[in-house]
Amino acid sequence: MLSVLGVGILITAPYANFQDFLSQGDHGRDLYAAQAVYRGELPYKDFWWVYGPLMPYYYGLFFKILGTKISSMILGKLILRILGGILICLGLMEVSSPIAAFLCACWFMLFQQDFFFTYNHLGGIVMVLGVAFCLLSYIQKKSSKAAWGTLGFILPLCLIKINFGLAALAVCVITVGVCDLVRHIPFNTPKKIFYIVSFIGLPLLIFIIYWSLLKGLSVMEMRQCLPYMEGDQPYAMSPWMAISNFLQITWHTITSNWTNLTFAVIINASALRCFYLFAKNKLPASRRTILVLSLGMLCLFYAANFHEYLKSGVWYRSFWAQPLSIMITFLLIDIATQSVPKVVRKIVFTFLAGLAIYCWLLVGRQLIAAKTENQYLSLPRGGIYLTNSPSWITTVKQTTEFLNKTLKPNELFFALPYDCLYYYLTGKKTPTRQLIFFEHIKIPRSQEKSVIAELEKNHVNYILLSSRAFARQEPGLGFLGTSYCPLIGKYIQDNFVPIARFGDWNHEPGWAWNHGTLILKRKQKTSQ
After folding, report:
1. I need a surface site. Which of 54, 308, 364, 473 has the fewest CB within 10 A?
2. In 183-306, where does DSSP find H-type helix?
3. pLDDT digits (tens, 9 = 90+) for 170-219
4. How far is CA 336 from the centre of its chain?
5. Angle formed by the axes of helices 98-111 and 70-93, to 10°?
6. Would you state the torsion angle of the CA atoms of residues 115, 116, 118, 121, taken in this order, to the nearest 10 degrees?
7. How far apart are CA 415 and CA 24, in angstroms?
8. Whole-angstrom distance, CA of residue 110 vs CA of residue 104
């Protein structure tokens, strides 16, 4: 494990002060959430939050230890990436050779597709890999501790992303049940207790935790925090269309460069050889059973983690399944090369190691080139290099500096439609519980009235309005005051006037580009 840790530090160290894109909405939400729980606020109750409640506390701990900077958040994320590599190595070592397990861990830490829009999901990936490790250990050792360890990873996974936690619970129960059936393990009292906890105890505990945090909110506010109902998402696609798109993107990825193409050839050759070995009974019976159960579990887990992508067709939602495909890949390569001449096996693994080193060096050079002065967010709570355009960075700096100069120490401002980054960068609390205002959020009139009441109660005299309030092209966003939140739009128009304008108001606003901000101040009341 020390070797995995060492390689993990080498792979992740260049990212300690670097982030690909920083968005004013999604990343701002995560940064604000960690800052809020650090102050003692609760997810859902005190501020809108769209995932499980656990990860803001994890990142809030890094703020507490290392200071409130984006680099503190990034360090927490890098530690998770290394932990994921360690769990992959531990899991595959149960059923494969150490060299295959080590290379698989390196592959994950180097090539795992990042959830570029949130810091939250990598914590869930680590828990998924913990579940896979425990299940592989159960398949190999038949240990009840491994089965219970699986539930130990599933609980925090449910508190990170509840649907993936429940999917992992289903995979766990099916895997344990099939293994016991195949191996004729008796359905005794300890196993009955395990199933009772799995079917009743754990779901009940999860329900109690979520209910304690969500109670007091309206049904619509709950749906906004947990958007799993039909119509809660702006994206939808049939499963068949999603699969078709997935295959097209995968083919494009394979043929995009020689490294991907070569690796795809190795994978497919290994899969064909494994099929031959299993079909012709070329493996020892005991070993064959373990491998079939292991591959079956990993494939089932992969399919279970594919459910969000199948429903939406949104590419990044397929990233939940990718770590499991990496494990499947290296297990297949290990099985396929165990019965070939040793020199061939050494050549294959040496080539894979060389390929990983080549890609690591290539990425390292790209990172060095990206870390230039005009890509540096030099705000006190920033301190990282970004790939956002220099104009975006300038807009964020100018807006933040204006707010810091204009607002009194205890004065709040209201940012909309979805610009939580400025709450974080200024260190200010949101004056309203709601952080996001878009057409697809479906904010009812009653909620609009409560937001306006909160603004009045907190004596908000300044509003930050970004160009995303008037999106023409991106589905689900809309026009503030016209297609969504007409009361809030009228309230702003009647009571506030613009005093400062920054950034790009000429192009279609984007997620982390073409960013413009407008600062409005409350009108002076005229004396009668």
Report:
1. 473
2. 189-196, 202-214, 219-225, 239-254, 258-279, 285-304
3. 999 999 999 999 988 888 988 999 999 999 999 999 999 999 999 999 99
4. 33
5. 160
6. 10
7. 10
8. 10
